[in-house]
Design goal:
five-stranded parallel β-sheet, alpha/beta, homodimer, about 220 residues, Rossmann fold, four-stranded mixed β-sheet
C-alpha cells in the first residue's frame, strides 16, 4: 500500500498505522473509537460502505456510505474494496481509495471492522495493521447493554448475541485483547497501544536518515 | 523459560515480559531504567555479573555482581548465564537463575544489556523479549555527556564513542527505537511501550479461561 510521510516530533518520517478496533456490538467500541479520534490529531476513520438502511441519526458519508446492492456489487467488481463481507442480510466493505489516500498523506487510519475484515486487511497490509479486540466484561452485561439501547427487537438482540459469541471466538487472531469493564480505562489502554505502536522501529522509516547523518558527524 | 502467574486487574494470569533497554553509554538509559523501576511495581532489574572493578559508589549485588575471572569462567561452564559477552577487557553476563525465579513468580524483568545480549536473549526467549533502543539526540551531544560525567579519561571516552557508533549501527535489531532529546518524554515513551506490551494477546495467558467461562454463561 502507498505510504508517506507524517513527521514526528523529531522531524522524521514514519509509516502510517492501520489500526483496527473490533468487538461484539454493544461492547463499547464506538465510544472508544470516537474518543480516540478526538484525542489523536493524525488519525482518521475509515468509513465503510454498506447496503443496509441508515438507522435514525446516522449520516451518509460519516457513519457509513449507504449504497444499494447494485452499486456495492460494482465496487466489488472494480476491486474498490480493501475487504468486504456479508453480515446478516447486508454487505459491508472498506473502500480502498480513501485509505490509500490517507496513508499516502502520512495519516493513520482507524477501522471499525470485524475479525474477517481484520484478517483480510492483515493479508494485504501485514505489519502495518494493528488489531485490537475489545471484550465486554461478560455476555450478560453485553445483552443488558443491547437491551438498554432499546433500538432492536428481541429477535435482533438474539441474533446479535449469537454473532457476538462468534466474534469472541476469534479473539486469538488479534494482537491485543482488552476487557471493557470501564470505558475510560479501556480507552486509555487503546490509546497506550496506539502510541506504543507508533514508536515501533519498523514504522520509523525516517530513522535511517537520522542515524546516517548522526554517524557522519560522530 | 518457566513462567507463571501475576494477576492483572481482571484477575487473569499473564506471561512475564523480558524488557531490554539498550543504548550507547551516556544516552540516558540508566536514568530511564531507574524511573521505570520506581514507577512499575511488578518490574525487577536483572543484575549483571561483571569482571570489571566497581566504580566509586557502585554496590555489589545492586549495580552488578562483581566477580573475578575464574568465577565468571566457572559460571559460563555451568551454563549459569542467559547471555554473556566481552566488552573491552571485561566480561559481562546475565545470571540465569534470578531471571527464571522472577518470571516463575509472575514478575517482569528489566535488562540493561547491549545488542549482542539482546540478540542472545531473543534466541532463548523469543516473543517474551521486548527490545528498546535509546538513541542520543546526536553524537556530539553524547560526547558532551560523557565529558561532563568527568569519570573517564579522553582515551576511555574515545573508546566509548567508537563503541557507541558500533551499538547505534545495530539499531535495526530492536523492536522500538527512541531518541532521548528529553529524558522525561523518553521515559514516558518507554513506559507507554511497557504498558502496551503487557496488553498483547500472546501474554494474556489467563484470557483463555475468562473467555471460556464467558461463552458458557452467554
Amino acid at each position: 500500500m502507498p505510504h508517506s510521510s507524517e513527521s514526528d516530533p523529531h522531524g522524521f518520517k514514519r509509516r502510517g498505522l492501520l489500526f483496527v478496533l473490533s468487538s461484539p456490538s454493544g461492547a463499547g467500541k464506538s465510544t472508544i473509537a470516537r474518543k480516540l479520534l478526538a484525542a489523536e490529531a493524525a488519525l482518521d476513520m475509515s468509513v465503510s460502505a454498506t447496503t443496509r438502511a441508515p438507522r435514525p441519526g446516522e449520516v451518509d458519508g460519516k457513519d457509513y456510505h449507504f449504497v444499494d446492492l447494485e452499486r456495492f456489487r460494482a465496487m466489488v467488481a472494480d476491486n474498490a474494496f480493501l475487504e468486504w463481507a456479508h453480515v446478516f442480510d447486508h454487505r459491508y466493505g472498506t473502500p480502498r481509495a480513501p485509505v490509500e489516500a490517507l496513508l499516502a498523506a502520512g495519516r493513520d487510519v482507524l477501522f471499525d471492522i470485524d475479525w474477517q475484515g481484520a484478517q483480510q486487511l492483515h493479508q494485504i497490509a501485514g505489519g502495518d495493521v494493528v488489531r485490537v479486540f475489545i471484550l465486554p466484561p461478560s455476555m450478560e452485561e453485553l445483552r443488558q447493554r443491547l437491551v438498554s439501547r432499546a433500538t432492536d427487537s428481541v429477535e435482533i438482540i438474539n441474533a446479535r448475541m449469537a454473532r457476538a459469541a462468534n466474534e469472541v471466538s476469534h479473539w486469538d487472531s488479534y494482537d491485543y485483547v482488552l476487557v471493557n469493564d470501564d470505558v475510560e480505562t479501556c480507552f486509555q489502554q487503546v490509546r497506550t497501544i496506539f502510541h506504543a505502536e507508533r514508536l515501533k522501529r519498523s514504522r520509523q522509516t525516517g530513522l535511517i536518515g537520522f542515524i546516517r547523518s548522526m554517524m557522519k558527524t560522530g
